[in-house]
Design a protein that fits this description.
mainly alpha, 12 helices, 3 strands
């Protein structure tokens, strides 16, 4: 529209730009399945994260305290993303003042106030999710935990850069033996996909989950319910115990 207006006003000679069609990320089930982790891959990554940030590794690679902490930030960005199912921007701009961890039924949970200005959909929401223990650990490691400090602030008092997060992401993908992560478009955003998929597999209420994730129920069901073929197979193999049911019928 801006280009058309400028052309009509005589500000330049190009009447319009041609853009490739924009598609909604995650609608295609096969694409979504490729861009998230399998359970085995997730376990391998979590083990890799421990090794990548260990004192033994730091000593072997002669890491400074600052360098090791940036690795810890990348590690916790991954783990917290999977547990809270927050979008990259929402998590990246999260401040300690909007985080409150607590214990319920012997689990460490967290209440997070996601501000509208940090959300893709520009709507605020308050969520209660898993991952409290990761926030607790990161708070102990960090030097900057005042209310107005960003959660992912490095020791130098600067917000860790996105480039640094993705540099370390590539390192622990390699350490976990996931060699095709670029081809499958695996990113930090994939932790959100993985978290949502696992919650649905655990029979979480879709309406409640859509509110937690800050997305519509329609988008949630259309995107994620059709993405997990393993769950579809499990449902197909479920045994029916009612005597009047014909087990050979396509129920």
């Amino acid at each position: 529209a801006l280009c058309k207006w400028a052309f009509q006003e005589g500000l330049h000679s190009i009447p319009e730009y041609i853009f490739p069609p924009i598609t909604r990320r995650g609608v295609d089930a096969d694409s979504l399945r490729r861009s998230t982790y399998t359970d085995d891959e997730y376990r391998r990554v979590t083990r890799a994260l421990i090794a990548y940030t260990s004192a033994k590794t730091a000593a072997r690679e002669h890491l400074s305290e600052e360098e090791l902490f940036v690795r810890q930030l990348a590690r916790h960005f991954f783990l917290i993303g999977a547990n809270t199912m927050m979008r990259f921007g929402e998590l990246y701009q999260l401040k300690w003042g909007n985080v409150e961890t607590y214990t319920a039924e012997r689990q460490r949970l967290v209440t997070i106030n996601v501000l509208a200005e940090t959300s893709k959909v520009r709507q605020s929401r308050v969520i209660k999710v898993r991952g409290g223990k990761h926030f607790d650990r990161l708070r102990k490691l960090s030097r900057h935990t005042k209310k107005n400090d960003y959660v992912f602030t490095a020791h130098n008092a600067e917000l860790v850069t996105r480039d640094a997060l993705y540099y370390h992401y590539a390192q622990f993908m390699a350490l976990a033996g996931i060699t095709d992560w670029k081809q499958r478009n695996l990113t930090y955003y994939s932790t959100r996909h993985y978290g949502i998929t696992k919650r649905l597999q655990s029979n979480a209420n879709p309406l409640t989950l859509s509110k937690v994730c800050g997305t519509s129920l329609k988008h949630l069901t259309e995107t994620y319910y059709h993405a997990d073929l393993t769950e579809q197979e499990r449902a197909a193999l479920s045994r029916y115990t009612t005597e009047n049911v014909n087990l050979d019928s396509p129920l």
